[in-house]
Structures are given as structure tokens and as C-alpha cells.
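Reopening this one. Same input as before:
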Amino acid sequence: MKIQPLVSIIIPTYNRADLVCEAVESVLNQTYANTEIIVVDDGSTDDTHTQLKQYGRRIHLLTQTNAGPSAARNRGIAVSRGDFIAFLDSDDLWLPAKLDRQISLLQRVGPSVPCCLCNIRMQWSEREITSFDVAGLKPSINEGMWLNVAEVLPTRFVLFNQGVLIRREVVDRIGSFDESLRFLEDHELSLRLSLDGPWAFIRDPLVIWRETPGSCYKQATENRHMLETKPWVYILEKHLTIVTSDERHTRLRKRVAGEVYRAHRQMQANKMTQMNSWPVCAVGRVLHMLERYRTGLFRRSPWFPKMKVASADGSTAKHERVSTATST
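Same output, byte for byte:
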């Protein structure tokens, strides 16, 4: 019989009384049994807390003054007891085999692999796509090892929180979420985690991400100029500091520095589009279009990093062919 290590699932929630129970049910319906569910109510003003009380001892319910998703997740991490940690946003769902498949793969690849990331089915009102497709990740095998995570992640966003399972000792070592961030906090953590070595991955979508009113994603897309670009610059600059201080990352340093420069150009163009002066706005829109054009060219160039994978037994698989159709 295989040992079933304890998995701590942390669900931050804020005013999601109509959805959070669906998220909890999707965890309770997992085929993997040895779990603890920690729900952190981040200062909800609706009846979220009342709805969650129905689960009694099946969940560990915490409440706090509203402090944002990073603080809520960190609160959950602090009280968790699991050998592995997973996250689920309160408007999303897990498919029943999610944890089972990730634990099985991590047990096969061994303790040196820090985490396992699965694909995510992203549902909008008008379309559906996977998170790997959005990020241009097309591994040639269904599951195995993602070898060059640190090279790929600075160049694009990969949906992370809902699909990752992380070893507890790794979180203790690299630290948890940056509480100064309300947006892209998961990408900041994923960049740090990428420096810990290759990840396990599963190409099958085992999570359902749903577009919902009031979500962080919705706020970021509706105010994209300031809510996405500014955190992105901060995150990349922070990451550049980390890789600069470690001589093992000489090659990676150049790539991250290039992305910092690119992000600054984009932020400057975005700022200009927000100015009251019509000529400055017009120039900003032109610069913004030029940046999109440059990004498109970069994605089609030989310098755009392709995902490199290997099977779980360590044999190298054929490199993926990345679709360049997705724009940023």
C-alpha cells in the first residue's frame, strides 16, 4: 500500500457565499482522501461565513479582517499541517482526480522535485481554453518533468495557484506569498519556486477556472494598464535581484534583465495613454502598439524559450512546438 501523505488545501474567500461551497465540495469529492481543508474568510460582509458553517469539522474555518488573497493564503499556510500544500480560489473547482494524480507523479519523480503543476480549463462566458494554451505551453508528453521552468516563466504568465501542489519543506524554505501584492502574487511565488529545480507537470486539465464578477482577474483585465503592468515590473525587478545575487544564474540573469527592460517600456507606454493631454495619449497608444508588435516578433523568434520536457523516468522527450498565436 502506498503511503498517503497529508495534503493541506487552502481556500481564501471574500464575499463568495454563492460560490465558495462549490469549491469546497470539489475538494471533498477528491479521490485522494488524506486531506485537510483550510478556508480563510478574508473579511466577507455577505453570508459566506454562515454558508461555510454547514461543513462543521470537515473544514478548518478561519476569519480575519480583509487583507487580500496573499495574506489569506499565508494565514492558511501558517496553521496547516500537511506534507504538501495546494491552493484553490473560492470561485474555481477541482476535478476529482486532481490530487491523486499529482501525488502519484511526485512520488514517482522523487523528493528533489519541488512541485507539480497541472493544466487548467479556463471558462469564459463566450469561450473556453486551457492555461497551457494561453501560456503557449504544449508539452509532447502527457505528464513528466518540465526541465526549464526558470527560463520560461519570466517571459509569460502561467496560471499557477489553482493547479499547483507544492512540497511543504519547499514553501518553508523559499517563503510564502508577497503580501504587498494584490495582483500577480502567484506569479511572484512561481518565479521563486522555478529556481528550485524542474517541476513535474500534467498536461490534462484537472482544474476548472471560472470568470466571475469581482474576481482579481476581472479587476486586472478591466484596469489592465495599472493593475497588471506595475506589479509585473515590481515582480521582475525583485526576481532580478534574486538571480543577480546568485552566481549560478549568470545565463538566466540576462533573460530576466531583458524582461525588466521590456516591462518598463510597456509601463511607460501605458502611463502615457492615461494622460490628459491628447497628443501624449496618442503617442502612448502608438508605443503600446509597438510593444505588442515587438512582443509578437519575440514570441516567433528563436530566442523565445520553448518548454523542454522529460518523462517521469528521466528520459528526455521531444521539445514542444510552441504556438505563437496567443498575444499578451
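So the earlier flakiness isn't reproducible anymore. For the record, The first helix runs from residue 20 to 28.
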